[in-house]
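Hi there, hope your week has been kind to you so far. Thanks so much in advance, here it is:
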Amino acid sequence: MSETTEPEPEHERIDPEYDHRREEGVDEAALEALLSEYAIGRDDHENAPAFVIRPDEVQEVVRLLRDEAGFDHLTCLTSQQYEDRYESLIHMTKYDQRTHEVTLVVPLPTDDPVCESAEPVFRTADWHEREAFDLVGIEYDGHPDLRRILLPESWQGHPLALDYDQNKPQVVRYAEHANPLQDDRHLHESDTMLLNIGPHHPATHGVLHLETVLDGESVANVVPDIGYLHRCEEQMCQQGTYRHQIIPYSNRWDYTANLPNEWAVARAIEDLADIEVPAYAQVLRTMATEFGRMLGHFLAVSTFALDVYGDFTAIFQYGMRDREVVQDILEDLTGQRMMFYYFRLGGVCWDLPEPREEFVEKCRDFLDELPAKVDEYHDLLTGNEIFQIRTLDTGVLEPEVAKDYGCTGPVARGSGIDYDLRRDDPYGYYDNLEWNVVTEDSCDNHARVLVRLREVEESAKIIEQCLDLLEDWPEDERTVQSNVPRTLKPDAGTETYRAVESAKGELGIYIRTDGSNSPARFKIRSPCFHNLAALPEMAEGEYVADLVASLGSLDIVLGSVDR
């Protein structure tokens, strides 16, 4: 990446590897040739070539794309219903070339919506397909455990189906918890016990229920039970208007670091409506979002200290101290302390607060003190012997397993996966700034903490450069928002998937339009949803205490998991 000295929206990129990872688009002709046997049609999507395939050939096509074309990242799997059909949609890309994207469209009849499961090829399809079954009503043939995931088992109907009765009363019963390890599943001399962890327990980071089977003190099996915080966010976004009513909802997903959420929604809608964002507004977005990333990482590190050795007085309060400073800065910028709503379509709501010099000085004072504070975290946390014993070589998530579950963000980068959308699918002003993607190779709980602490330092680099740009930007060119129509009605049938790098990983939005001023389908691809699904791979065979540490290292937020 090249360093910029002038506030211009375009800069020459001089790093050839950087260009290779981001700029080369997928070879559509090669894809057509590869899928010629299977594709029965084409579809128009804004972000990627889309191929229509038969429902009984999903596994074969997905495996072909993974093994022959290198599409090793099943980014998003969603579903929807039309008047004359259902559709299951699979969006795939590559960890080493994010701008290579492809979408598979699987049409299904309304009277028998059955699709072959992609789970045998990508484990991440497990939870995706359960959600599609739960909310839309599509069944997935060959799925290992096709049952509801967000709603109770006794729920009647599928809330995102066209014929769902919103006024129908529901009777929700409590299900009995059976030990999933039957006699023929373990040694007879073993003595297992079912232990419910959560949903009301501080170590579960919210309303998460872990159905845990113990063999002595070791975790023999763990099943995350989610859905306790499901608030129908996707449906509410489908009822809101593009112009003003959707972005505010996004602050409620990952509410610990929510500015990237606003950008994810804005990026998808701006893509649909072909809205340009002024360069000056891009700098403001980039700076604000990196402050938001710090909010998330400070909280993640401080609560993790509570999880692994109960240190409330030192590290937790240090984390809250630094987080408060960032919140003060963002309150000055946005007017809010938590639900910021700073982004607008085409830019941001306003410029830096007046007097500008005072705000910039406040930001620089924080950045100047940050290196010493990060050193304190290393002294108190990563250099602490108890912390090292609890985190080194525990919660190991190997790179190939992480990819199989679609893990992203610090969870993936802690497993050595060099993947960051800010660089690999550039947006905002990131590609004009000097910063580094942070990775660690030890794949354990310790590595994920190191990644977050180092990313705080990288965020500081980005913010420093943004402040330089904002100070030097000519006053008469400080455009904070482009001219956006009061009412947006993108052409019917337009579809797109766009994503940003949130503090937790890849936060993506899929939107389909119907010609009105609200989406026909709005799908949230949550990084916490994917990362949490990998917890059994990290925890089984280890002690209960290691399970708690592994969960904490994922830095999940249930508002993002359940949506």
About this structure: The mean pLDDT is 87. The two ends are 35 Å apart (CA to CA).
